[in-house]
Amino acid sequence: MNRLSLRRGPVRLVFSRDLWAGAWFLIGAQFVGLVLGSIALTAMLTGAAFAITLAGIPLAIAAVATIRWCANRERARLRRFCGDVGSGYRQFAGSGMLARARAEYRDPAIWRDIAYLVGMYLPLGLLDVLVLTLWGGSILGIALPAWYWAPWQDIHGVRYHGYQLGYFPNGPHGHPGYGLYVDTLPKALLAAAAFLILFVAFSYVLMATARMHVNVARNLLGAPVDPLREAREVLGRPGPLSTSANAAHPDYTGEFSPNER
Predict the structure, then answer these.
(1) What pTM value is reported for the model?
(2) Quick one: which H or E segment has residue 166?
(3) pLDDT level of residue 233 (50, 70, 90 thresholds)
(4) What whole-number distance in Å separates Cα of residue 135 and Cα of residue 137?
(5) Lowest mean pLDDT among 98-102, 139-143, 217-221, 254-258
(6) How far apart are CA 180 and CA 174, in angstroms?
(7) What distances in angstroms separate CA 120 from CA 25, 74, 86, 169, 226, one per listed residue?
(8) Residues ≥6 apart with Cβ < 8 Å to 48
(9) Range 125-148 burial, b when 16+ CB lie within 10 A, else e
(10) Taking 50 as the threshold, does the pLDDT of residue 241 lie above it?
């Protein structure tokens, strides 16, 4: 289940809660992800640095507990979009700190936590920042008629007011000049209409990015899913073949006996 659906019209998408929830998720990922990733990386490096000493055993166990705590915080953020994803941690049934440390570090779920918290922060973070910058810039562009007059520049002693959408080194009427120099209300309204179209387009991009981010987090932090689970459920359900077999052989239990011919 993923609530970040792209199957909406432009108007429904812009006014949907999921769009703003997805934007908030990406914004939070920059700050929460940085904190959790730093804590997880510090714990991992500390445990590895003292691994060769006797004191490193309890530190290694503490490092795993810290990484699990960080991963659980991120799972809590995912719960709004895809429910409880689980964790898939193995249960330790032995005794002794050394055996526990070995079992903890042989658990694939811990390494998946590290892969997401540490390994995926930078690529996902850069993508999130790029999308949020373009999306947020389009929102500012829609409001351009309210503030286009505020920016100004001084060229050869002449003060020009307006916002540059392009390159105008010699002012709005100088040469060379490329783009649109917004210095009047009609130009601002025209630019705002263009930014509105960009905002709708980038809203779909933002939703797709948030959806991808959630899916990556769910696949790495969530419990592994049996790919044959649905097939096993179908095979385990009673069907017409099992009904007819039971009617023809009411004493048949389905168990195989090696003495049967």
Answers:
(1) 0.74
(2) strand 163-167
(3) low
(4) 5
(5) 254-258
(6) 13
(7) 16, 13, 19, 41, 24
(8) none
(9) beebeebbeebeebeebbebbeeb
(10) no
Would you call 220 helix, strand, or coil by DSSP?
A: helix
Q: Which amino acid is at 256?
A: F
Task: Residue 40: name the closest of 79, 20, 61, 69 by CA.
Answer: 69
Across the strands, what pairs with 179?
166
Q: Does the pLDDT of residue 225 top 90, yes or no?
A: no
Q: Which two tokens stand for residue 75?
A: 């799972």
- Number of other CB atoms surrounding residue 26 within 10 Å: 23
What are 11's two structure tokens? 């108007």
* Distance separating alpha carbons of residues 83 and 76, to the nearest angstrom: 9
8 Å CB contact between 124 and 29: yes
Residue appearing with tokens 């009609």: 186
d(CA 53, CA 73): 30
- Of residues 52 and 90, the one with the higher pLDDT is 90
The domain ranges of the chain are 10-124, 130-209
Name the more confident of 218 and 230. 218
Q: pLDDT category, 252, cuts 50, 70, 90?
A: very low
